[in-house]
Specification:
The structure holds 2 protein chains of 2 kinds. By secondary structure, chain A is mainly beta. Chain A has strands at about 5, 10-15, 20-25, 30-35, 45-50, 65-70, 75-80, 90-95, 105, 110-114. In chain B, the strands form 2 sheets. In chain B, strands 2, 4, 5, 9, 10 and 11 form a 6-stranded mixed β-sheet that branches. Chain B has a 5-stranded antiparallel β-sheet with strand order 1-3-8-7-6, with no helix packed on it. The chains are: A mainly beta, B mainly beta.
């Protein structure tokens, strides 16, 4: 079956522009996560969606970052007024519900802010 | 806060055994995952430990000591394709129990 897919794979944008990153999770997975991986840094949790519950936004670095998940499936991460420090690989993962379930990661979107 | 430590880089020879250590200091520890990440690719799941002891899966084994805040990943009969980053990640029993908190990863280079 299909894994987690993300688009675009690469995005170059100018400082100050808004960007939208898309994630298609594995069908049937109720949990969806966004992480960020900066050069030389570990993966950093951003936001978590579980079913119809309110998302856990505790990892979002600023109010320029937002995300939504429509119909319990596809998710979009939006970064407004991008800054150079936003340059990173943005990874989406999905899983079954519960802390013991492995998360399946997508290939990521490499964002470069110039 | 949470602190997860791994060596930055390791080198080992094809056919050998290598142990990658991970120590953690967290509040409300739940379980520990190991992921493998080849350069430019997504992380893939290797193992999950929630109880003390050793979990063996083919050439890979993972160990956990909750009292010591310590885990290791053991790779046997190393192959060139094992050259990758190995990520240690913990889940906590506070807040969202399933979100992963990662260390910075250990880059393993397997040489001939």
């Amino acid at each position: 079956g299909a894994g987690v897919s993300q688009s675009p794979s690469n995005k170059v944008t100018e400082k100050g522009k808004d960007v939208e990153l898309r994630c298609d999770p594995i069908s049937g997975h109720t949990a969806l996560y966004w992480y960020r991986q900066s050069l030389g840094q570990g993966l950093e949790f951003l936001i978590y969606f579980q079913g119809n519950s309110a998302p856990d936004k505790s990892g979002l670095p600023s109010d320029r970052f937002s995300a939504e998940r429509t119909g319990g499936s596809v998710s979009t991460l939006t970064i407004q007024r991008t800054q150079q420090e936003d340059s990173a690989v943005y990874l989406c993962a999905s899983s079954n519900s519960g802390s013991s379930y492995e998360q399946y990661f997508g290939p990521g979107t490499r964002l470069t802010v110039t | 806060g949470q602190n997860i430590d791994q060596p930055t880089e390791m080198t080992a020879t094809e056919g050998a055994i290598v142990q990658i250590n991970c120590t953690y200091q967290t509040s409300g520890f739940n379980g520990l995952f190991w992921y493998q990440q080849h350069a430019g690719e997504a992380p893939t799941f290797l193992s999950y430990n929630v109880l003390d002891g050793l979990e063996e899966k083919g050439r890979f084994s993972s160990f956990l000591s909750r009292s010591k805040g310590y885990s290791y990943l053991l790779l046997k009969e190393l192959q060139m394709k094992d050259s990758a980053s190995y990520l240690c990640a913990v889940t906590l029993n506070t807040g969202t129990a399933s979100k992963l908190t990662f260390g910075t990863g250990t880059r393993l280079q397997v040489t001939l």
